[in-house]
Amino acid sequence: MSEEINKIEARNLNLFYGDFQALINVNFTLKTNNVAALIGPSGCGKTTFIRALNRMNDLIPSCRITGELLLDGEDIHGSMDVTELRSRVGMVFQKPNPFRMSVFDNVAYGMRRQGVRDRRKIAEIVETSLKKAALWDEVKDRLKKSALTLSGGQQQRLCIARSISMAPEVILMDEPTSALDPIATVRIEELIGELKKDYSIIIVTHAMHQASRVSDKTAFFLLGELIEYNDTSKVFTNPRDKRTEDYITGRFG
Asked: Distance (Å, rounded) from C-alpha 148 to C-alpha 42?
């Protein structure tokens, strides 16, 4: 039986902004249908790492990368088309960022950009995506209303639906609940548990309890290095590195 290829893999990944090294020799793997939480203090490289996964760092002229970053064994920074990559690797940001258009058009936007014109197909995918994002029942009678009329938690789930509509394989979430109230946060956390049936997910979070609740694996970053990466239960109950223990027990960060 052949060994399963990792959905995401980083091999000796280094990332520089000019002379500053933001990621130092990072090695990381993520299997299909797993959730990995990235934890660590501000400025430690978590967001830089997930931005590298869908090449958002391409927008920064001084950015330089060495090592390998693979999606299904293919080098993300090699010959892979960046538009294809971003349809396969979706991104949900810290602050909900719906477009200034209707709820329906937000979810349909990516499909239309890719040239899909079949209205019935678009409508089906919009409905399916909103259902997967646990939002359909709340917005099915408001599809033509502005997305900006939704609550913060609903807007974030709409952004998740917008990502889902492109049929990604991986969803990256950069502190997706930090701008939300506790009730909306619980909804997103429950949603992550549902979404992992269909997607691989990487979530950046500052909340230890959130990482312990939603993830299969936890990665602790510090000053650009991946200090520890293991099953979440092991990282939180029996960390290998004293720096990990100090961070999760609140001694620093």
From this structure: 29
Give the helix, strand, coil percentages of the chain, each rounded to 5: 40, 25, 35
pLDDT tens digit sequence for 218-243? 999 999 999 999 999 999 999 999 99
Q: What is the mean pLDDT of residues 89-110?
A: 95
What's the CA gap between 222 and 231, in Å, rounded?
Answer: 18
d(CA 65, CA 215): 27
Kindly give, in sequence order, each residue whose CB lies less than 8 Å from that of residue 131, ignoring residues fewer than 6 positions away. none
pLDDT higher than threshold 80 for residue 111: yes
For residue 68, CA distances in Å to 12, 71, 100, 145, 181 come to 7, 10, 37, 44, 38
- Contact, 20 vs 64, CB < 8 A? no
Task: Classify burial at 197, counting beta carbons within 10 Å of its beta carbon; exposed 0-12, middle 13-18, buried 19 or more.
Answer: exposed
Superfamily of domain 8-248, CATH level 4: P-loop containing nucleotide triphosphate hydrolases (3.40.50.300)
pTM score, whole prediction: 0.94
CA atoms of 137 and 147, how far apart (whole Å): 15
Q: Is 82 helix (H, G, I), strand (E, B) or coil?
A: helix
Sign of CA dihedral 92, 31, 110, 59: positive
Residue carrying structure tokens 């002229």: 61
Domains of the chain by residue range: 8-248
Q: Per the structure block, which two tokens stand in for 3?
A: 């060994």
- Span 56-69, pLDDT tens digits: 988 899 999 999 99
Question: Taking Cα atoms as reference points, which of 171, 137, 179 lies closest to residue 155?
Answer: 179
